[in-house]
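Why does residue order matter? Because the sequence determines the fold. Keep that principle in mind as you read this record.
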Amino acid sequence: MKISTLKKLFLRKRRKKEPHFKYLMGIIHLWLGLLSMPIVIIVCLSGCLYAFKNQFSEWANRDKIFVQQTDNRKSADEIKDILYKEGAELRSITIPKDKGRSYIISYTKSKVDYAVFFNPYSGENLGAPKIENTRFFEWVLDLHRNLLMGNIGRQINGAGVLMFCILLFSGFVLWIPQKWKLLKQALTVKLSGKFQRINYDLHNTLGFYSFLILFFIAVTGLYITYPWMKNALIVSMGGESISRIVEATEEDHNTFDTLFKDMLSRQKEKGQSIEKPVALQSILSETEKILPYQGVITLELPNIDNPRFRVTKINTDYMLGAMLPDKISFDQKGVLKSKELFWDKPLDKQFTSLAKPLHTGEILGLKSIVLYFIICLIGCSLPVTGFIFWWNKARKII
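Structure:
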């Protein structure tokens, strides 16, 4: 192929009155779009599938998750006693907000750890969740993160997602109409037009509507994958960089002292011999007083590494039902030792605790998962419609 033909294919002429910046964005959009197309399609499609992992898991385990309610709901202490009689030691218990659901408990028996569903009304151990779907979604997750190629795939994937972020920005610049009277055309898809026009409108208009959420999903994905992105986002939200934490100076001594005192307190608690630890129901009652709202509660019992009762409660009363975690801990006498409320944390800590559900769409439950699914499908379609648009022009040149 002649060099002049290649130039026409990949370096179109600048249109009359077209700003240089917009022309440059157009060239970058074309090159990065062709380069990243396979990666974007794979990542978006696998993301669409993985978004429904919990829903598939609930459907597969519906006979264990949903139980018949009676007036006799066993307390956490009674469940602990049931396990004790079977030679097992309770490690944690998750109590759902919906009383028609089973508990999830973890325990150790004969030095083997188990995590099972438990019927709090009948006292029946319902067994471990079915793992057939889990294996499939682990494969989907590996495809989504690493393209099934380990660390090399992760680096390729990361480069593709970075290009996608630039594509979204350059696409937004290209979408901006030159005149206000063209705004309506830029916001609608002309379904009565020819195939080329419909394809262009789908790429241009759907790209605009999905721009912000796709950009957010891409950036949070990079945050989870790359420490440098994590560092950059934390610093931009007012937090301290990782290197700053490592090179702690005089002014950080107060924070260090607090952590050191807490560590000493934990060591002291480990060495204490408690004849009769506080009842689990007492811990749960205190939790209800400190966190007086309805929510899923996970109670972790003390173990060799941690001498305290740790409680996590999910608050869904704010931000359209967003799942915001509050954490508290008690010593083995039932004395409150720490309280980490989501709204009391600085912005960077709040973001850190929500990064994964923000990326997967689980933050608002099923409604945000469905929204993310639709947006990811649009993201998957953008390389396809973009390629068709370019190929139709390329055919005339070739």
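The chain has a mean pLDDT of 87.
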